[in-house]
C-alpha cells in the first residue's frame, strides 16, 4: 500500500477545485449562449414573418 505525501494530497485537492470551478463557468457560458441564440431566433422569426408592429406604430405617430 502506497502512502501519499502531503504535497501529493494538496495537489489532488487543487486539481479538484480547479475542475469544479471550470464546470461552473462552462455552465454559465452555456446558459448565456442559449439565451442569446433564443433572442436572435425571436428577432429573425419576427422579421421573416413580417411582424413589424413597432415600425408600423412609429410611422402612425
Radius of gyration: 25 Å
Question: What's the main sheet like?
Answer: none
Distance between the termini: 83 Å
The rough form would be described as: rod-shaped
Elements, N to C (H/E) = HH
Q: Report the count of strand segments.
A: 0
Secondary-structure-based class equals mainly alpha
What's the helix count? 2
Regions with little confidence, pLDDT below 50 for 5+ residues: none
Helix content: over 70%
Strand fraction equals under 5%
Multimeric organization: single chain
Mean pLDDT: 75
Molecular structure report:
- By secondary structure, the chain is an all-alpha fold.
- It is built from two helices and no strands.
SSE topology:
Blueprint (H helix, E strand, L loop, with lengths): L5 H44 L3 H8 L1
Features of this protein?
61 residues, 2 helices
In a nutshell, what does this entry contain?
Helices cover 85% and strands 0% of the residues.
Amino acid at each position: 500500500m502506497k502512502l501519499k505525501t502531503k504535497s501529493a494530497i494538496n495537489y489532488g485537492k487543487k486539481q479538484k477545485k480547479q475542475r469544479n470551478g471550470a464546470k461552473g463557468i462552462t455552465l454559465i457560458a452555456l446558459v448565456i449562449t442559449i439565451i442569446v441564440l433564443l433572442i436572435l431566433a425571436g428577432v429573425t422569426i419576427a422579421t421573416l414573418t413580417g411582424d413589424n408592429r413597432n415600425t408600423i406604430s412609429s410611422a402612425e405617430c
